[in-house]
Amino acid sequence: MAAIDDLKNLLSLDIRQLETLADILKNEKTCLSGSDTKALDTLTREKNAILGEIRERAKQKIRTLVAMGFRPDSGDPSRFIRSAGLDELYALWQEADSKLRECHVLNENNGRIINHLQKRLTRLTDIFRGASGQQKLYGAKGQQTTVSSRTVLASA
Fold this sequence. Notes:
Blueprint: H1 2-34, H2 37-67, H3 77-83, H4 87-129, E1 136-138, E2 144-146
Antiparallel strand pairs: 1-2
Helix pairs in contact: 1-2, 1-4
InterPro entries: FlgN-like, FlgN-like_sf
Keywords: Bacterial flagellum biogenesis, Cell projection, Cilium, Flagellum
Function: Required for the efficient initiation of filament assembly.
């Protein structure tokens, strides 16, 4: 069936590009720790290009699945593929999903690093401007909060 072959090809492309994306995200983490902004810029462009291609293929996959009888409101496409007894296609779908989840975790980790770097930069900027006159404490969730009369436990 041509639709099944199309899906296999699309998923194989996804898998290869998700492996490349994982490598890019690992390199991005290295660049973040080394503050290599030129390399980060290049990696960001590569990452965005790959993500654009993956998004386009996602649309193609859904259109192909719909042509095969899948209803998007019926739930997860992998369930449809599995119920149709398409074992090879199901294995490819699962592999692509696993690689996508790996990229998601790597990207979240890089996001936390960027968030930390932004907070550090903000603190340094405050110090340079002399705006860091108020004391800071860590709240219940680990975020910094400024000490105010409401957060002081006792005063003389």
